[in-house]
Write a structure and sequence with these properties.
This protein is α/β, with parallel strands linked by helices. It contains 11 helices and 9 strands. The strands form 2 sheets. A 6-stranded parallel beta sheet has the order 1-4-3-2-5-6, with helices on both faces. Strand 2, helix 2 and strand 3 form a beta-alpha-beta unit. The protein binds pantoate (PAF). ATP binds at residues 30-37, 147-150, 176, 184-187.
């Protein structure tokens, strides 16, 4: 596996690969790789000629300085994991090379960023859109793979790709869960043993909501989720929404046959986790 740190080097390398007709798959990450990332990488290796993984803890998408400082950084271990799945190129740039000047760009995603993550993490999606645009320019992929755990991020990236006419196919890959249901996330590494035991309650809340969908009104499902999580040690619910799966607009009622996305964010101790579940009301 090639390891490239410099932006001018990755640009040149990718230009050569594209000109020689190679199909490029790209998995952008912030490192601390887990099985969820590895599944994205395996899919890319299978579906493309060349797979590039980027590891870059992007400072502009953190609205909380502690979250940025404490974000797990495990580059040596990540490099070994990438070799096991057949990744061809690791791109691990330095912040000063990605942001040569402070970025003053302002993206607007309209209603899509007015809810959930956009509402609770001001500036987050601006940072994501800025860095994803830069990474797409550097890597020039044909396909880019994103995990469904960050459902709203995938919708934002799709809107970015469409709005700026990037010639990139965005692939959304299903959530990968631990045996107890906890959605895999790099932030799980920050949970202590007790918090790790209560963290699957986010998935428990989604399952509870799924059971009640179609039988109870939305407001009562939301109240049941709140009550369930308030009985959990060290869990502080930030939001739970039943949303349209495409626009992510929160719904106040649902119809038979409708597809919805159940979305949740909560602190477990000091660690903020998110999760979601796509549900077809015909199947509940
Ligand atoms: O999902 C992530 O890890 C990040 O938001 C991404 C897409 C790599 C951009 O920094």
């Amino acid at each position: 596996m090639e390891v490239i740190e410099r932006v001018d080097t990755i640009r040149e390398r990718m230009q050569t690969l594209r000109c020689s007709g190679k199909r490029i798959g790209f998995v952008p990450t912030m490192g601390a790789l887990h099985e969820g990332h590895l599944q994205l990488l395996r899919a890319s290796v299978q579906e493309n000629d060349i797979t590039v993984c980027s590891i870059f803890v992007n400072p502009t998408q953190f609205n909380n300085p502690d979250d940025y400082k404490l974000y797990p950084r495990t580059i040596a271990q990540d490099t070994e994991l990438l070799k096991t799945v057949g990744c061809d190129i690791l791109f691990a740039p330095k912040a000063e090379d990605v942001y040569v000047q402070q970025s003053l760009l302002q993206f607007s995603f309209g209603p899509l960023e007015a809810v959930m993550e956009g509402e609770h993490r001001p500036g987050h999606f601006n940072g994501v859109a800025t860095v994803v645009s830069k990474l797409f320019h550097f890597v020039q992929p044909h396909r880019a793979y994103f995990g469904q755990k960050d459902l709203q991020q995938v919708a934002i990236v799709k809107q970015l790709v469409q709005g700026l006419s990037f010639d990139v196919e965005v692939v959304r890959y299903p959530i990968v869960r631990e045996e107890d249901g906890l959605a895999m996330s790099s932030r799980n590494k920050r949970l202590d043993a007790k918090q790790r035991q209560t963290a699957p309650s986010l998935y428990g809340a989604l399952q509870l909501a799924k059971q009640q969908l179609g039988n109870k009104p939305v407001y009562s499902i939301k109240a049941a989720v709140e009550a369930y999580l308030s009985s959990m040690d060290e869990v502080q619910l930030e939001y739970f929404e039943i949303t349209d799966p495409d626009t992510l607009r929160p719904l106040t009622n649902v119809q038979p046959g409708q597809e919805v996305a159940l979305c949740i964010a909560a602190f477990v101790g000091p660690v903020r986790l998110i999760d979601n579940m796509l549900v077809n009301l015909n199947e509940v």
